[in-house]
Protein 1
Amino acid sequence: MDARASTSVLRQVVRQQWLILLRERRLRILGALVLAMTVIALVAAAIDARRVRDARAHDARIEAGVWEAQGAANPHGAAHFGRYVYKPLQALSMLDPGLQAHLGGTLKLEGHVQNTSRFKSTDGGAALSRFGGFSPAFALQVLVPLLIVFAAFGAFSGERARNLMWQEIGAGATPWLLLAGRFLVFAGALLGVLVLAGTLAALLGISAWSAQYFGALALMLCAYALYWLTVLGIVLAITAMTMSARSALLAGLGFWVVSAVLAPMLAPMLAERRHPTPTATDFHARVVDEIMKGPDGHNPRDARFAAFQEATLKQYKVSRIEDLPINYSGLLFEYGEKSTADIYNRHFERLYADYEAQAAYSLMASVVSPLMALRPLSSALAQSDMPAHRHFLAQAEAYRYDLVQLLNRDIKFNRKPGMREYAADVATVTRGVRFEPRPFTLAEVLPRTAAPFGWLLAWLAGAVALMRLAAWRLEGRA
Amino acid sequence: MNAAAIIVRTELLRMARGRWLLPLWLAFLALCGYAAWEGAAWSTQRGAALAAIQDEEREVHQMRRSQIVGELTPENKSRYGGAIYATAMSFRATLPQGELPVLTAGQAEGYPMAAKIFPFVASNTIFDEYMAGMENPAVLAAGRIDLAFVLVWLLPLLILAGSFDLWSFERERGMEPWLLAQPVSPLRYLLGKAAARALLLVAPAVLVLVAVLWLTAAPGAATLLQAAFLSALYGLFWLGFAALVNLFARNATQAALGCVAGWLALVVLVPALALGVADLVAPAPNPAERTNALRAMAMQARAETRQQADAASRPEGRAAPNIPDNLRKRAVEVERGEQLIRAAVQPYRAQDERRLRWLDLLRAGSPAIAFQDALERLAGTDAARARRFQDQAHAFLLDVRRLTQRYLEQDRLLTAADYDHGMPRFVHREAPSSERLGALAADAGVIVLFLLALLAVGARRLRRQATFIE
């Protein structure tokens, strides 16, 4: 068959399938249901995002008030009292909340210690919480593939579809053209749903509109399109390979259960086994152990400070601590803070290296499920993944360190010998440092999306190859 | 042999000959085995963490005791304040694991497993150190494959996969008119077929569960029976659901669609919707707002006590006490702080309790939620137990404060004898068994109610069909 004839047949197949699709009541209901659920999830997520954003802005204002209300206080006491910072919500995390519920959006910053973020939305739940909420990402990643299975399992299998297929083949269409035609029709419908969802998401995130926002959204929609087309290709290949609609449905559901339910749960657990994460107790025990081996910053008489003391006296060319032009306790606090920060940084680096290794291991599970490639890609673009959180934590740590050292330096330079109690206006002392976290730019996110995009493309190519194989088998039977 | 027995026997034979039964069983067995293995690993890790926390308390006490015995002299007393002042007593309260932790991690990761208690610590911070886990958030977000997941999510799929064509199979093959022409009622056919599936799908699943639990956790007979009974009930509900779908479906494909749609609705959508309802009607209190309020209160307490510091100081000329006065001042500050904390926390606590009441109520929305709740209670990883522990740890802190107050009033120092056997110890008290059984009965009641609803709809449908046939 020449190219022009092929195109003509393909056009006819597409037209006919499109009519079947429109006439099928079951598909209309299913499509409307999934679209409605996606819209509800998007609107609910937008309302929730606004609530969280407002709450965090309010909390930040109150927290700043509490910090300033300390007035004159011992700067080191103020460092222990600490400050709280709140993670800004990224606009696209409304579409894909990623790991947000398990990360916590608040971080306590205090002297000597690096805390992990707290107040996860999953804290303090009940049995119902185990089922998880309903997010737009859940609808797009899990429910739409199920819709595809339900919608397309009877495209070739079942008595009626088989009869139609043989008639079409008899009329001159090749099995490959029939498969491609059905693929194009379903793909058109799916891309329509995706464009609708994307448009609604963009409208709900109007306040965040920027070139970066649209770039990330477009890439995210491309990734979802690749994922859905892959699932569609596989389901069509299954239906073309199986005689009965029942077998096609069961095989399609089996694929969905494995790729959308089991693999996404199993892969992170196996990754954790491969690269174990220490328990919080172990982690803190190791950190505290290392800190305790070092000198105690609160105790200037600690014998382990001898070398430091000697170096300090030498630097200031004096022979006694009392003769130093600075406050020695403040200097020790400064020195101690640096030591503990180094220890914490080292241990956290190791922890995050474990997380990264686990993420890389989980990505390898893309071999069995395209969702394993889509998830990290989507949450990376939404900046609701671990690297984005780590980016926030790194900025918060830099701020913490500057803040605490400012307080320590105030003691170092301003506490005079003989002062029994020293107090300074902590708000004035720390006015010079501000916490203004910035999210990743799209250019910074892009390198992390390359491998998952590669996996999705490979899956789509695999799905097309499977369709080719199914068409070839049908040709043999014809 | 009567008609019912013949139907059951025929159905058993047909199922046994089917090539799908063995792979289903094996898949379920493999999943149960894996989930139990994961559950056992989780439970071991948690047990080790709890032991390490308790060791920490013991080590602190031993170190301080040996300081008193071996290093303390009247001259160097000031260096050993941590060992001799009651204000520095250090305790850990831990929530021991329940009887069946391998069953599910449940809510264990959303609540603290321990508390760090010092007499002067602010009561709202005693759990802080044990709230932040180091688990990879990706693992938590993916959800753990534990036995509860296999039972709540996958057991229905196993049963539906084996029962979705319970009757539609006959309808599709054109056997329905012939069968209905026999002197056997449709209800009897349906019950016979369902009984065969209960024997070959539900019963083996329950046996696998019992065996796995017995091998990995060796629980008491009562707990094992409760787990088996609830699982059987849940399995029967899904079998009933498949039977009901078959009364409506025109062919096996429609029945399969109906079964999967039902599973999706009851296991995925209704719980998600219920959670949305809970968020709307009884939102969780904002913990960041609560923290800010408490920090403001702490500052208020500090300012107030500083103003009263002079009045609280000891009159001059009195003998120097064993315990420095600044610790007594601090005790006053802590007491005032506690009053303010209690007042500040009250509205948040009320909001929290309201939310939990709603979450509890909404478990009636789906048998899956009720079953998950029951499994968490059996495992000892439920929210009620975790909250009970929090209340008890808080009460323990107040006990420790009262004890410290007595030491301060008597100007008494801690001695080696105190470290040997005079220190209070935290012991978690479980809820009365009637309370636990009541909650389990409520969960079972929800499943039974859903089963009865299925039976009612099924009976109505059968009556209509009977009229039609007549």
Protein 2
Amino acid sequence: MEDYLRQYGLLFLFTGVAIGIPASMLLVSRMAQLARMRPHKPSPVKAQLYECGMETIGGRWNQFNIRYYFYALLFLVFDVEAVFLYPWAVHFKKLGLFALVEMFVFLAILVIGFVYAWRKRALEWR
Amino acid sequence: MGPVLADNSIYRDVYSFFVGFMPHQLWWLAYLIAGLTIMVLLANAVLLNTAVFQWMERRLLGRFQVRFGPNRVGPFGLLQPFADLLKLLLKEDIVPEAADRFLFTLAPAVMAAPVFLVLAVVPFGKNSYLLDLNIGLLYIIAVGTLSTMVLFLAGWGSGNRYALFGATRAVAQLISYEVPMVLSLVGVLLLAGSLSLVQIVEAQRLPFLLLQPLGFFIFAVASIAEMNRGPFDLVEAESEIVAGYHTEYSGIRFGLLQLGEYAAASVPAAVIATVFLRGWANPFVPLGWPDVLPSHLWFFLKVFLVLFLFIWVRATVPRLRIDQVMGFAWKFLLPLALVNIFVTAIEVQLWRQPTTAQLWAMVLVNWVVAAVAVGGLSRAMERHRRRPTASVAPVPISVEVR
Amino acid sequence: METARRLEPVEINVNMGPQHPSTHGVFRMVLWVDGERIVQVEPYIGYLHRGTEKLCEGELYPQIITLFDRLDYLANFNNELCFCMAAEKLMGLEVPERAQYVRVVLCELNRVASHLMFYGALGLDAGAMTPVMYAFREREHIQRAFEAVSGARMMHNYFRIGGLKEDVPAGFKEMVRDLLPGLEQGISECDRLLSLNEAFLARTRGVGAISAQEAVEYALSGPMLRAAGVPYDLRAVEPYSLYDRFDFDIPVGTQGDCWDRYMVRVEEMRQSLRIVRQALEQMPDEGPVMAAGVRRMPRPPKGESYMRTENPRGEFGVYLVSDGSERPYRVKIRAPSFASVQALPRLLRDCYVADCVVVLGSLDIVLGDVDR
């Protein structure tokens, strides 16, 4: 247990390092600006959005039609399935035939659902 | 000293060095210093690896495309990435007024973080790693996903139309390729019986590339899609949506996004090297034999081999369309991953403690299954794909004589 | 009710161009998209409008040739040829054979160069970044030959009304002949690199298809029309210059989709090289390159003429009205790319955002040609 905590303690520390490195680069760049090594000449034209040299038509923040709704649902199903599969796979050698059959039944049900979704053309982008 | 430290050579050395002249109560300080030593090693390795990879990609793409690639800065252009970094550091920082300033700044700052975190659990040499989590692979998948979230932040925060396209595409790709990617590793878990990468390496009596050809294939393709490279770089498809999620970025923010992206390539490379190519061990001789090359060198050789593969694919294949990308994940890779799980589970059930001969039998069966499954499914896909566009069949151009 | 309306699918619109990496110049499309689907497309042209037709009215005839160089800037020789032949038709000039052969060789090489450019650009549009480099390697050889002949890589200003500016440099025949095997090999290499690539097929096959009937109705010409299955090539159906002396095939597609348009052009490159080979064999080694009795500032007689040639992009036409002075009264240019752009909204029906660049790439428009 102690070992476990020690490891995650290091991980926590490492998260700091991982965010610190890019953040320090941002900081260095900022310092360069303060030291007048980096130009800073803001202008309204520069601050415009890039849309091929034209003004953006319509508002900037738009409702966007996301077309992969079905995929998202399926993704949920299969990712939850993975949660079951991983422990099963890790301990499979100790569990024996029963676990195999059990998991195959589980997978079969999922596959049936998957085939159904396929047949219903839920896997077509529309 | 806990058992984790005991078999980690770098920890052990640094720890025992410091604990030697410290009061006994300060053992945790020595532990911390040992940990920080590896962190510094790791962070530098990631950054340097990114620089080398970027240089390598540009040079190799040059070779593939009958041109030179960068060759001016330093010998063979080796210092080009550093020159680029310096240039980007000194570029003006422009934030569009329409952007969400907080998200816009946050995205580049955290873009590279998941890469560092993921590589913390990968053993990069014999007995050398930062952490040996017992949920290693799961952790890699969970944390690795974060970079896509960052892409979405960047795209959404820019307030730009193209960036919005890039952002939604990033999420679409994530939810599609996450599934086959996760499932492709189940076969490995069945064989190795552990999620810890250290133990997975040690469980590879034969490299899992031989035992899990399907798993390797699916994982490689899915990880290319997850890091938005090669034929799946829809997120920043320059011919369609200009630069995708980083359209509005410039200066060091852009540099950090690029850094994150290139660093992200080393994650799947390191995972593939570890999980499928036997990590730090010599892949050609049985485990435990004395080795000619140092284990770290083996690891980096394999990582760069996989990176070369990624570059090669990128140089060859045109970009797919979003519906094709999604279809490929769900209709092609997912069924393959399921087949792989079924077959591997049955094999492991049959041979619980396989002898070497049985392992080779497994190799044979798995390669046959892989060939049949990939071949058969691609044929089925072909028919399926043509159905909605029935009016057009691939007819060769007929040359009419005047 | 209010909520229901707000949850309906929204269409947002996106500017593609004028400043876009893959609109082949300053071309602008406004797309109305629903997610990744294109609902409606509106092409906007005119960003490169230079008023060439009006400019022509104020220039002397030899000066106009330079303007034509700048129309379709990937097929300069072909443009020059068409204008020169329109004037020659009006003046009733007989161009010397040697000059005619040189013209044919240069025009066909220019067609190859233009199609190579198309090949690379379509590859880039489809997201393959390697083919363009191979295409440009081959194109470079052609450009060098052009430079040797005319002194310029793009804006040649080499054809004259009644012939050529000057004779080709010594060793021209050998130079071009040595070029051909390399080009043929290079084209085959390009073909192998991209044509049957599975991903490329997926991106182009069945995308932006148009039927032969519709292609005719949209006044498409050149490879666009032939890809739709109409074997119509001005070089064959209405041979101008010396084209009735050569033996070549017209590649024709069946589906009229992007892949057919691509394949037709790849095949056309081979046919062009065939023509070049024949032309080099038939070409006289000696002889004048300028018709006798043409003044430095030609004054075509009062009247009008229409000349059309097969440009790499399709039917290029020049309608020339002369009032007998040293400047034309009116020049009307029929630009093939202009007609192609018209068909764009039709071709992009039910397409994805990603398709629009591939379809646009397959039209192979040159904005100098569209906007004139």
